[in-house]
Amino acid sequence: MKFRLGIISDTHGLLRPEAERRLAGVNHIIHGGDIGSPDVISGLQQIAPVTAIRGNVDTARWASTYADTALVRLAGRTFYVLHDLKALQVSPAALGIDMVVSG
């Protein structure tokens, strides 16, 4: 079975219908921050399991449940997720990271 990964970022509280359509059928979704509202994550979870990190606009209390970065292993690959690529403080190759996802 082919693993399909959906990547989204900077929703700023709005999960657009066209994004939902494009994500339909994926096995997992990574949100790269600037979620904007917990409703966005709830909507994404209706499509597939979600790994999400907070971005610079995610300052409300609900966002404190999300980390600034995430290291996730999916389909035999390792993904490092952060919102601002300029804040990358790890060596992806040294850690065996296959892909860096940034918002």
Descriptive labels:
single chain; 103 residues; alpha/beta; Purple Acid Phosphatase, chain A, domain 2; 3-stranded parallel β-sheet; 2 helices; 6 strands; globular
Q: Say how many strands there are.
A: 6
CATH class: Alpha Beta
Low-confidence parts lasting 5 or more residues at pLDDT below 50?
Answer: none
Mean pLDDT: 96
**Broad structural category:** alpha/beta
For the terminal residues, how far apart are their CA atoms? Answer: 28 Å
Q: Over all CA atoms, what is the radius of gyration? A: 13 Å
Count of discrete alpha- or pi-helical segments spanning 4 or more residues: 2
Q: What spatial order of strands do you see in the largest sheet? A: 1-2-3
CATH architecture: 4-Layer Sandwich
Biggest pleated sheet: 3 strands, parallel
Helix content: 10-25%
- CATH H-level homologous superfamily name: Metallo-dependent phosphatases
What is the string of helix and strand elements? EHEHEEEE
From the 3D structure, determine the CATH topology.
Answer: Purple Acid Phosphatase, chain A, domain 2
Shape label? globular
The multimeric state of the shown protein is single chain
Report the portion of residues in β strands.
Answer: 25-35%
Count of distinct structural domains: 1
Care to describe what's here?
This protein is an alpha/beta fold and about 100 residues long. It has a single domain (about 5-100), classed as Purple Acid Phosphatase, chain A, domain 2, CATH 3.60.21.10. The protein is about 15% helix and about 25% strand. It contains two helices and six strands, in the order E-H-E-H-E-E-E-E. It has helices at about 15-25, 40-45; strands spanning about 5-10, 30, 50, 70-75, 75-80, 100. A three-stranded parallel sheet has the order 1-2-3, covered by helices on one side. Strands 4-5-6 form a three-stranded mixed sheet, with no helix packed on it. Strand 2 (about 30), helix 2 and strand 3 form a beta-alpha-beta unit. The longest helix has 8 residues, at about 40-45. The chain is globular. The model has no long low-confidence stretch (mean pLDDT about 95).
